[in-house]
Amino acid sequence: MKKYTEQEKYMKLALKEAEKARLKDEVPVGAILVKDGLIVSRGYNQRNSKQNATAHAEHIAIEKACKKLKSWRLEECELYVTLEPCPMCAGAIIQSRIPRVYFGAYDPKGGCFGSCINFNDIKGFNHYPEIQGGILEAECSNLLTTFFREKRKK
Length: 154
Prior knowledge:
- The protein is of the alpha/beta class.
- Helix content is 40%, strand content 19%.
- The protein is built from five helices and five strands, in the order αββααβαββα.
- Helix 1 (6-23) packs parallel to helix 5.
- The relative contact order is 0.16.
- The model has no long low-confidence stretch (mean pLDDT 96).
């Protein structure tokens, strides 16, 4: 039996959130926010069901964490997300002061922590999170690839 790292353990939970999105015919992206080893919030993509462009997994998890912790500053949290954050979510991560972000699949069409652009390379922000991509990358990528392959068949 494979022993998972802490990052892989939480990414597995983010994948469960992504699966919730897939079951609702949403792009399967999931996110988990962790503080002191405990899950503070979860989110999955809900853009279609909510008809809201901001209903990304990360954005939902950040909003829930802010409410639960009664603070917009998430300085002691870690974010786990199955897909590299887009510009909006990267901005929300920076604004909420999340210190560490772990993501699964790279997003060559919209990723903003290394793929299309790296927000950490832009001078002038007052916060720069540590980023680690490629956590359970194959699993995260396969979920997305399978989802879009099935969509094209319909």
